[in-house]
Amino acid sequence: MPTRTIRSSPSLANVRYEIRGRLARRAQEMERMGYEITSLNIGNPGSFGFRTPETMRLAMIENLRSAEGYCHQKGIFPAREAVVMQQQERGVRGVTADDVFMGNGVSELIDLTLRALLAADEEVLVPSPDYPLWTAAVNLNRGRAVHYPCRPERRFIPDPDEIEALVTKRTRAIVVINPNNPTGAVYPRPVLEAIARIAEKYHLLVLADEIYDQMTYDDAEFTPMATLVHQTLCGTLSGLSKVYRACGYRVGWAVFSGDVEHSRDYLSALELLSSLRLCSNVPGQWAVQTAIGGYQSIRELMTPGGRLFESRKAIIEAVQRSRYLQLATPMGAMYAFVGVRTDLLPDFDDQQFALDLLEHKHVLVAPGSSFNVPYRNHFRITNLPEPQVIGEVFARIEELLGNYAAGDQPATRPNPALRVVEAATHS
Questions:
Q1: pLDDT at 427 over 80
Q2: Which residue has the higher pLDDT, 45 or 426?
Q3: What is the C-alpha separation between 417 and 415, in angstroms, rounded?
Q4: What digits encode the pLDDT tens for the residues 108-127?
């Protein structure tokens, strides 16, 4: 019988998620070979010793008996009501539990909200750089991601005029990631107000990714997008993964506000899709009420002396000491989007750098081009490690960049014991 190759769906042709792509697979291979890899490519607090608040764990444990069956497709009522209370405290009016959808993390909800919205070739405005799942999900759901620039020279703050210039008759939604991943930018209120007016003018769905909503530094002020959008629909996405350090619980939510009345058809489609997967993780949902209503320990981590504050400080100081690096100071989230000076390293390539850094310095970072930017002189690093580890990592980075400047390209001298495995995937 002749063999036949089983091929992937053509719908995956333009889907990329390089944060867990080739470099991550190579890092895993090296770890199996006995190398100790410092993995700074992904924001996973549990990998760096951060613990979920004990009260959340206890709430989930105490309600396990109530979590053995399916729940409502939108989620359990106590979790949805807790989200409503949070929105009301932030100044969002008119929201009820019926407007809240619980999901298996924000990742699932990104897919569902776009799947319920898009027809073939319809457009979504997505920031560049972006959290790449947004671009991937638009492409996966037959749409077209149109990237609005958040330029390094503007400290990664978007220009509303540039956003409006990209709106066409096929534009259906605009994505706002604030505080931003990967740059750490926190958008000023006037910029958000201008984006809200654009969305209302063209009747666009606003999808506000606010998973890092309480993670701001210094005097940065987070403004909920839902408080600014009134004449069109706004979907606010957040969850337990980052602020509450509970990535593995896989609990996120999307809450809809603004012009809900004229969006019933869309919300009905979203409920249908939620029904098709029956429900999201029930045990984890029982932690939501305790998380939102309890003591917000994240604040201790974001102020001077706190772990995230001090590690961010270590990144800033390392870049200041560097001959080759530059940085728009991150004001939120848990990342830094570090630039490399092309006047000193004109041939710098972020993908090759990330591979060299992994192979020769045993540090894994995410190349900047993974975040849908047109330039190749940035990389993203998380500030989750201890400050000492941050310092050691940047010493290795500086050494590698010094080798580049001297014309010594490590890539031309690979360790013969190491080999790059190219997996036949679309990651």
A1: no
A2: 45
A3: 5
A4: 999 999 999 999 999 999 99
* Dist CA 276 CA 274 (whole Å): 5
Rounded to whole angstroms, the Cα distance separating 99 from 311 reads: 38
User: Residue 2 above 90 pLDDT?
Assistant: no
| Rounded Cα distance, 365 and 340, in Å | 14
Q: Are 201 and 229 in contact (CB under 8 A)?
A: no
> Can you tell me the distance from the alpha carbon of 225 to that of 228, in angstroms, rounded to the nearest whole number?
5
CB 113 within 8 A of CB 105: no
Q: Would you say domain 10-50+300-412 falls under CATH 3.90.1150.10?
A: yes
Instruction: Enumerate the H helices of 185-241 as residue ranges.
Output: 189-201
Q: Where are the domains of the chain?
A: 10-50+300-412, 54-293
Task: Pull the structure tokens for residue 211.
Answer: 């998973």
The dihedral of CA 150, 155, 161, 162: what is its sign?
Answer: negative
- What span, in angstroms and rounded, lies between the C-alpha atoms of 207 and 270? 14
Q: Does the pLDDT of residue 133 top 70, yes or no?
A: yes
Parallel/antiparallel/unpaired status of strands 233-239 and 205-209: parallel
Burial class (CB in 10 A: 0-12, 13-18, 19+), 424: exposed
The reported pTM is 0.92
Give yes or no for a contact between 74 and 102, defined as CB atoms under 8 angstroms apart: yes
Strands 252-258 and 171-177: unpaired
Upper half-sphere CA count for residue 97 (Cβ side, 13 Å): 12
For domain 54-293, say whether CATH 3.40.640.10 is its number. Answer: yes
Here the tokens at position 7 are 């091929």
Per DSSP bridges, beta strands 123-128 and 171-177 are parallel
**Is 420 strand, coil or helix?**
coil
Provide the CA 232 distance to its chain's centre, in angstroms.
24
> What's the pLDDT score for residue 12?
83
Pick from 200, 175, 159, 57: nearest CA to 114: 175
Query: HSE on the CB side for 25, CA within 13 Å?
Result: 13
Which distant-in-sequence residues (6+ apart) come within 8 Å of 89 by Cβ? none
The terminus-to-terminus CA distance of the chain in angstroms comes to: 32
Contacts for 54 with CB less than 8 Å, ≥ 6 apart: none
Q: Which of 197, 201, 204 is nearest to 125 (CA)?
A: 204
pLDDT for residue 1: 66
- Digit-coded pLDDT (tens) for 196-248: 999 999 999 999 999 999 999 999 999 999 999 999 999 999 999 999 999 99
Answer whether 207's CB lies under 8 Å from 126's CB.
Answer: no
